[in-house]
Amino acid sequence: MRLEPPEKVSQEQITIDVREIEPLLQAPAMELPAWPEAMIKMRDGRILYIRQAKLEDVPLMLEYMRKVMNADHDFYDIVGARVYAEILGWYRSRLKDPFHLIGTFDGVWAGLANGRVMNEDVAISLHTMTFARRGRIGYAMYYAKTYYALEILKCKEWWSTFESYNGWRMAGLEMAQPTYPWPEYQHELGGARVYYVTKRYWDQALRNFCPQMIGSDLTFDVPDEVRKANEVFKLPEEVVV
């Protein structure tokens, strides 16, 4: 759009340094506490190690998600595309206050749970994905990011929506999450219904979700042998979704 200036000007062209534009495009980051490393013993006896993703993990994460996008069943194509964009949005500083938790078995990527912080009171669940069949990895990963939002970030509410039937059953149904009235409240993922967990509901009903569903709880006392076994981040040999 162009308009003629209503006054004489000494300079008709102004050069703008992109470093001056970037603060307008990149949301100022909140000071978020880091997710402390954790682990949980799964039903089959394996130890799932859950840590915060690092920027150096991103190239491998994107490589795998490109393959997931090609899976034409159970909504993995759209979920894969959105997760790819969320990881890249974090990498390119185009997503406000995101967090990405990755779960590994001996370093091999088995699960992802991500979200972002909308404000001091509300954190948004984005996606939970598992890359190994069975084992209830998704339960552990979703629980971990809910724990992070309500226990570590001290948010008052946790908002989710679900794109797949399996995701809805795992967290929406199994956690008996209520919903806000629609369309007054819409989740940012496609404008779907907002399912929510308040801190009070978490304390009353969901704090023991992992012990009920998996048989054990998160522990943040990670021994050196578990940390060492998961030191190198590796992709699964096949895409299993």
Describe this protein with a few key phrases:
241 residues, alpha+beta, Aminopeptidase, 7-stranded mixed β-sheet, 7 strands, globular
Characterize the structure shown.
The chain has 241 residues and is of the alpha+beta class. The protein has a seven-stranded mixed beta sheet with strand order 1-2-3-4-5-6-7, with helices on both faces. Helix 2 runs antiparallel to helix 3. The mean pLDDT is 96.
Which residues sit in consecutive blocks of at least 5 with pLDDT less than 50?
none
Which term fits the overall shape? Answer: globular
CATH superfamily: Gcn5-related N-acetyltransferase (GNAT)
Fill in the CATH topology: Aminopeptidase
Radius of gyration: 20 Å
CATH domain class name: Alpha Beta
- Main β-sheet description: 7 strands, mixed
> Roughly what fraction of the amino acids lie in strands?
15-25%
Query: What's the arrangement of strands in the largest beta sheet?
Result: 1-2-3-4-5-6-7
- Fraction of helical residues: 25-40%
The string of secondary-structure elements, in order, is HEEHHEEEHEHEHHH
Tally of strands: 7
The SS-based structural class is alpha+beta
Helix-strand blueprint:
Layout lengths: L17 H8 L12 E4 L5 E6 L5 H11 L7 H16 L6 E8 L2 E10 L4 E9 L6 H16 L4 E4 L4 H9 L21 E4 H8 L2 H5 L10 H6 L12
Parallel strand pairs: 5-6
Antiparallel strand pairs: 1-2, 2-3, 3-4, 4-5, 6-7
